[in-house]
Design goal:
Layout lengths: L1 H12 L10 E5 L11 E4 L2 E8 L2 E9 L5 E2 L15 E2 L8 E5 L3 E8 L7 E6 L18 E6 L5 E7 L9 E6 L10 E5 L6 E3 L3 H16 L1 E5 L10 E6 L10 H15 L1 H10 L1 E2 L19 E2 L18 H11 L2 H25 L1 E2 L4 E2 L9 H4 L8 H5 L4 H20 L3 H21 L1 E2 L4 E2 L15 E2 H9 L5 H10 L1 E2 L7 E2 L12 E2 L1 H14 L2 H18 L6 E2 L26 H15 L2 E4 L2 E4 L5 H7 L5 E9 L2 E8 L9 E9 L2 E3 L2 E3 L6 E12 L6 E2 L18 E2 L3 E3 L2 E7 L8 E6 L2 E7 L2 E5 L7 E7 L13 E2 L3 E5 L5 E3 L15 E4 L6 E8 L3 E10 L12 E9 L4 E9 L12 E2 L3 E5 L2 E9 L25 E11 L2
Parallel strand pairs: 24-36, 31-35
Antiparallel strand pairs: 1-4, 2-3, 3-8, 4-5, 4-7, 6-9, 8-9, 10-11, 11-12, 12-13, 14-30, 15-16, 17-18, 19-20, 21-22, 23-25, 26-27, 28-29, 29-34, 30-31, 32-33, 32-35, 37-39, 38-39, 39-42, 40-41, 40-43, 43-44, 45-55, 46-48, 47-55, 48-54, 49-52, 49-53, 49-55, 50-51, 50-54
């Protein structure tokens, strides 16, 4: 205790008397968890920060710039603080605290450190300042208004004006009647910028919103980036794209989808810089295990911090390939060759190591968390954050499509570099993966791909769906034309657009759950245009324009039924959301740019030119371009050439459909819909004449619900619970109960990942066809809606071989320690340095069969949602003759803080077909993301103090199963 007090006193001595000496900050959802609000000294050892806070239930902590220090009210649970009440702070990490705010105001956060052992927090709302009536920002100018209906029968209006409507580069004033997410004026001003394209459509509002996207792209174009977890929170030089107003760093997936959607077309050099930032080789002096593949330098794509300690729990770093392909199409020829070589090396190294660490040969799919849906409790079963090995071994549609994209791009680059053998290898893997996605994940009864499977011991594709994965499957060609039509017709749309997941998760706030993300809508629009679905495209156009117009910015996300940037639920404050929401979110900006350039005007880059395939719907034409005979995209630059594109429009129609391209003229001469670069001059006039109205596809699924309903028709049930298994001769009884207060739900039993019984009432089910190794999981379903739950924790009847670390057959260079107040069993503590060794000898297998070999462990290197210190090791099983019968990577992801009721954590399994006999198991090093140079300044485990791939070992288990 005395050491903690002395350390705290030393810390307090560093606290600032002036802003330039910032040390501790109030960091929360109201400021993007950044360092904008420093605690500054106001009296002896008393520090304050005044923060303008909008409505919401805001998570926050007191923390240092690099998160090496965190102060929370209770390190074991979140606390909602009441204004004007003192709270003692614990000076260690823990769950965030919450401040509930009904109305925008300034809040004073005061930290009193006069007792170093017990600093005290008090928050008070300051008196509101009287303000004069705001002047009309459009005064004296013609105004164009866009009106949008609300979910509750009202109307919101966005208004636009320009002081210089005839200027070559206009400026705009843009206001909104809607309550904005963040405090500030209800209007913004921005202008068109030289070097960026502009549009002229006869509709000032439509022109302005495209200018807004360009303006926000420029705002996100920075010369340095920062994140509190890196470089001590100090700036890192990089001519890159920052992620948004509240997110000042570069993340692989955010950048990649943003670049693919639109940014690479406008600023390929900055995209390339950002892509380079997300590549890394090995840290100096790190021993590299012999099983690791790739070039000696290890150059590969970085998987950002995340679930369970990052890769390979999460494997969507392959999304980098989407941006790389688009950048290769748009970089000047003088720079393309060098980037192509580097991209091939990085892709190849990443592909080869993901094949070792994340590929499941039994299913032909890659393991790993869903792409971008990386808040586990938002889109996975409620029990999964405590058992991340199950998430690590699940297969998701979105992530598998990113692997498909990476394989196809790497194959093309290999052929370009005359490496036929490597190209053939990756082409083969891509074809096999496409086939596996369609065989394993397509749900014929739903007419869509499953978003994800259950984890090991189950493996069934779930009746859960996500718009990003489905859209990516369409645009990459994983889905054929019939599947694309089916997906677009079946995925549900609310009044404001398509949610990112379906059905919604009960009891969860808005973020990924119950949300629209504009970048996902951008991919939905791309898929709809490609497949000719007019209704889905019109819904996407409306979503993107409404979101930007009413929020005065391209927001990170919106509540999906109301379209609000914040749904303030005072009855259920824990469900308020979106939990965090940033203006000018990079991939939202990219989606809007792509909507205009690629979908409306039809311009997209190809390997050796441009494609021209506009998708102008009748609704878009009559509602936005009604008075125009033509619309123009001016000054689009590609490979140093200027493109001016004019769409000549037919008369507006009251029917729905899209307009076919009648003819294309390049500089007055007939042209095809794909134009090669060599056909282009320095200045090119492209005229696209739209002709007859095509009906296209009109099928769309519409759903509606009350945004405040906690368990309405848009939700799935909670997953049920198997209470235990009872064996009786050749039969097994499976007792189960609902996971919550589900009304009218029925239940299904899955045996070894296959449906065994359906439409059961709660109670129990008797399996008279049980095998000696069966594993069971349960699923709930609402008959009225068809919405289903995630699967329960699986339970198995197979025999176990359990060996604790105190068993004399355990061989380790680190000896076990006795149980203590935190751990109820002996453990080998902190095992995992590259030179550490662990083996289990003389394991007698009496019954031959398929076994899942797992470590019983605990990894407390970081929280389950953070870090780069997933335990990633190489496991080998040898028979009595010393022959290897199974080998591969196993993972020990971060686990919840150990306490009496913490579930036992087991590693991901290594499957081994074992005959009767004696075996030896050996474990050695592999690697995790902390071995990469890019993480050498990370503030947590695996960062500045060196790579970290360690955990506690409690024992080993061999579980006999059918799978």
């Amino acid at each position: 205790m005395m050491r903690r007090v002395l350390a705290l006193a030393a810390l307090l001595a560093c606290l600032p008397a002036a802003a330039q000496d910032k040390h501790l900050y109030v960091r929360g959802a109201f400021n993007g968890w950044g360092t904008d609000n420093a605690l500054t000294r106001k009296a002896d050892q008393v520090y304050e920060a005044d923060i303008l806070v909008g409505p919401g239930n805001h998570a926050f902590k007191v923390g240092s710039g690099d998160w090496s220090d965190e102060w929370v009210v209770d390190s074991t649970q979140s606390v909602t603080v009441a204004p004007d009440k003192p709270y003692r702070l614990e000076t260690r990490s823990g769950p965030e605290d919450y401040l509930f705010v009904r109305r925008t105001g300034t809040y004073r956060f005061t930290v009193d450190t006069r007792d170093p052992a017990a600093p005290q927090l008090r928050i008070v709302r300051l008196a509101d300042q009287a303000t004069a009536g705001a002047a009309d920002p459009h005064a004296g100018r013609p105004v164009v208004a866009l009106d949008w209906p609300t979910w509750d029968g009202r109307q919101e209006t966005a208004r636009f004006s320009s002081p210089d409507p005839q200027a070559r580069l206009r400026s705009y004033t843009h206001s909104s009647s809607m309550n904005l997410r963040d405090p500030g004026p209800q209007h913004v001003t921005y202008r068109e910028e030289a070097g960026l394209p502009r549009i002229r459509t006869g509709n000032l509002a439509f022109d302005a919103l495209f200018a807004l996207a360009g303006h926000e792209m420029r705002q996100d174009s920075v010369s340095q980036i920062r994140d509190g977890n890196y470089n001590g929170g100090a700036a890192i030089p990089c001519d890159c794209f920052a992620t948004g107003e509240k997110w000042h760093y570069v993340w692989t997936r955010d950048l990649s989808y943003a670049a693919d959607l639109g940014l690479a077309l406008l600023d390929p050099q900055r995209v390339r810089n950002s892509l380079d930032f997300k590549l890394s080789g090995w840290r100096a002096g790190v021993p590299i295990a012999p099983q690791i593949a790739g070039t000696k330098d290890g150059l590969q794509i970085v998987q950002d911090t995340g679930s369970g300690g990052s890769w390979p729990v999460s494997t969507d770093r392959m999304s980098w390939a989407f941006a790389a392909e688009e950048t290769l199409r748009t970089l000047p020829a003088s720079e393309r060759a060098a980037f192509a070589r580097r991209a091939l090396q990085a892709l190849s190294n990443t592909i080869e190591n993901d094949r070792i660490a994340a590929f499941d040969a039994q299913t032909g799919l890659y393991n790993g968390e869903q792409s971008f849906l990386d808040w586990r409790d938002q889109s996975y079963a409620a029990w999964m954050p405590t058992q991340l090995a199950a998430m690590s071994t699940s297969k998701s549609l979105s992530t598998n499509v990113t692997h498909y994209q990476a394989l196809t791009l790497a194959a093309r680059l290999a052929r370009e570099h005359k490496d036929a053998a490597r190209a053939q290898r990756y082409e083969g893997w891509a074809a096999q993966l496409k086939r596996a996605i369609n065989e394993q994940l397509w749900l014929k009864d739903a007419g869509m791909y499953s978003s994800l499977t259950a984890g090991y011991l189950d493996g069934a594709p779930l009746h859960k769906f996500d718009w990003l994965g489905l859209a990516l499957a369409i645009v990459t060609g994983v889905a054929d034309a019939d599947q694309a039509r089916s997906i677009l017709a079946h995925y549900p749309h609310g009044p404001m657009g398509a949610p990112v997941i379906w059905p919604q998760q009960p009891g969860m706030p808005v973020y990924h759950n119950r949300a629209i993300w504009p970048f996902v809508t951008g991919y939905g629009l791309r898929a709809a245009a490609q497949a000719g679905n007019v209704a889905v495209a019109d819904a996407a156009y409306a979503t993107l324009m409404r979101g930007a117009a009413l929020n005065l910015s391209n927001m990170e996300n919106l509540e999906w039924l109301s379209g609000q940037p914040l749904l303030l639920d005072e009855v259920n404050p824990s469900l308020i959301g979106p939990v965090i929401n940033s203006r000018r979110q990079l991939w939202s900006v990219g989606a809007y740019i792509g909507m205009v350039v690629t979908n409306v005007f039809g311009v997209s880059a190809r390997d050796d030119g441009i494609a021209l395939k506009p998708f102008v719907t009748a609704k878009l034409r009559r509602e936005y371009f009604g008075g125009a005979k033509e619309i123009a995209l001016q000054d689009l630059r590609l490979h140093g050439k200027r493109l001016d594109v004019r769409l000549r429009l037919p008369a507006a129609s009251r029917e729905d459909g899209y307009y076919a391209v009648e003819r294309i003229l390049l500089n007055g001469k007939p042209a095809q819909d794909t134009i090669r670069l060599r056909q282009l001059g320095e200045h090119n006039d492209i005229e696209i004449v739209l002709g007859s109205l095509q009906a296209g596809q009109q099928a769309i699924r519409r759903v509606q619900d009350d945004p405040y309903a906690a368990d309405g028709a848009t939700f799935g049930p909670r997953e049920p619970l198997i209470l235990g298994l009872a064996r009786d001769g050749g039969a097994v009884t499976v007792p189960f109960e609902p996971g919550g207060a589900e009304q009218g739900a029925v239940y299904s039993v899955y045996r070894d990942g296959k449906l065994a019984a359906d439409a059961l009432p709660a109670g129990e089910w008797r399996d008279t066809s049980a095998s000696a190794t069966a594993c069971y999981a349960m699923e709930a379903r609402f008959p009225a809606t068809g919405n289903r739950s995630h699967h329960s924790v699986p339970r198995c009847v197979g025999d176990n071989i359990e060996i604790p670390v105190t068993d004399p057959r355990i061989v380790s260079n680190i000896k076990p320690v006795a149980p203590d107040a935190q751990f109820t069993m002996p453990r080998i503590a902190g095992w995992g340095q590259p030179a550490d060794r662990f083996a289990v000898e003389r394991i007698e297998v009496g019954t031959p069969g398929r076994y899942q070999v797992q470590l019983r462990y605990h990894n407390a290197a970081n929280l389950v949602n953070l870090g780069i210190s997933n335990g990633v090791k190489w496991l080998t099983v040898k028979n009595a003759a010393g022959k290897t019968v199974a080998q591969g990577v196993i993972q020990m992801p971060h686990a919840p803080v150990a306490k009496a009721d913490t579930p036992v954590a087991y590693s991901t399994p290594l499957a081994a077909q074992l005959a009767k006999g004696s075996y030896r198991i050996e474990m050695s090093d592999f690697y995790n993301m902390s071995y990469l140079e890019s993480n050498s300044s990370f503030s947590g485990a695996g960062g500045a103090k060196g790579p970290y791939n360690r955990f506690d070992i409690m024992g080993i288990r061999l579980l006999r199963t059918s799978r």
